[in-house]
Amino acid sequence: MKRFATAAGALALMAGTAFADSPVLLKAVGTWSSLTNYQKHEGPFFNERLAEASGRQIVGEIQSQSGLGLKGFEIMRLVKNGVFDFAFGLPGYVAAENAIFEGADLSSVTQDIETQRQVAEAYYPTMEKAFAETYNAKLLMLYPFPSQTLWCNAEVNGIEDLKGKKIRVYATTLGDFVEGVGGTSVTVSFSEVIPALEKGVVDCGITGTMSAYTANWQQVATHAYTLRVGWGLAFGAMNMDKWNSMSAEQQALMQTEISALNDRMWAETATEDAVAISCITGGDCEIGEKGAMKLVEPSSTDLAIRDTVATDVVLARWAERCGADCAENWNNTVGKVLGMTAAAN
């Protein structure tokens, strides 16, 4: 009997040791493999940093949504269903489920990256709750892509020239801006923009400065109109069941590492506008080949029109989509940072 008890105890100890030695595997999906955020941050974080920081107690593996042939809209549903444990993505791709997801990056309302980070932090608890309720997911970070501006295969020398133009968007709030200046919004996935510009399906496309350069939009677009209409704020979120299966120590390590990753991404993005615009318009370029697009900077009149559209169209339409309670919450969070009030017309 004593020998049986001793053997049973040994087996239990071995099982416990085996469990402790089995790393947590996190299957992740990232954004676009051609872009800086994936190449420098998302990919290395999951493929290398997590294992290194945790002594291989947490091991990641990641594939980009472009490599998987995903368009973005389905990513959080796949996380909810447990196909992936973690996803990086854009709130604009999940806003169809609930307009509340748009609130931290409404088109044209934020004009510098420092303020955009304040907006993201103010709205974080709202996004955290929405991810939990909609996708059974733990929101762990909000980070930016570079300034979202307009890249046109057409003569565009100011905001008035956008009237009648077909303009690629990837989020409803960007569509609100386009329609507010008299254009027609067209939803086109990132991977399909170049052929759409070539064939005249769209006249212009909205994306980030560095995103446009690294994806070679300069090969088909002629005018770089640097009117900032958003930041391409992105999220990192994890399946809640997977999160809850981790130990408190593993969760703490994950949050510490994610926080450091987030800081690195904000810092790098802050430098990318000037570099990308110089490269794409034929200026100094140390990161690749120069483009030859015409640089069109917005006039003071353009900026005034943009600001009016941001308030009277973008913010008002969003408040109508999201509802009175949602708008009131925004006013008490983001609105206080920006000095703006959301109210449906």
Automatic annotation (TrEMBL):
Broad class of where this protein is predominantly found: periplasm
Keyword Signal: yes
Cell compartment(s), UniProt: Periplasm
Keyword list, A-Z: Periplasm, Signal
Gene Ontology CC: one annotated term: periplasmic space
UniProt signal peptide: 1-20
Protein name stated in the entry: Transporter
Organism expressing this protein natively: Parasedimentitalea huanghaiensis
